[in-house]
Amino acid sequence: MPNIRKEIHRQLREITILLVERSIVIHQKWPIFDSKKRQIVWEGFKNIAFSLKNESYETIYNKIVEMEDYNFLLLDGAVIQMIYEFDHRDNIVGHILSFYLFAGGKTPPVREGMKARR
Asked: What is the C-alpha R_g of the chain?
């Protein structure tokens, strides 16, 4: 029986590669496994959205993009976050899958040095 944690991590890496190859993302953060929290998150994970949960949508979106706290920033400015949590046997015990639409303006938020990388 395959290890579900390792399989999900592999699939997230494959999705990331596919989105970069197809030029669907402006920027991405690679999935990592945080062994202390037993979570698959992304490089530089800060959980900004949770800490700002009582703020306006626009504030949360802008801070997520500013802090690069996501798996993917898509061409249209939308943001995707995927978090998976596991028990000590690597069974899934929780997950968060979030999609944030671009919060206004004429063009998606791209900064110098922010580009898809493989």
From this structure: 15
Distance CA 56, CA 101 (A): 13
Q: Are 70 and 26 in contact (CB under 8 A)?
A: no
The set of residues, in sequence order, having a beta carbon less than 8 Å from that of 76 and lying 6+ positions away, is 102, 108
Alpha-carbon distance 67 to 44, whole Å? 9
Phi and psi at residue 28, to the nearest 5°: -140, 160
pLDDT per residue over 57-80, tens digit each? 989 999 999 999 999 999 999 999
- Whether residue 35 has pLDDT greater than 70: yes
Tell me: pLDDT of 83 over 60: yes
How is 34-48 classified by DSSP, letter by letter? ETTTTEEEETT---H
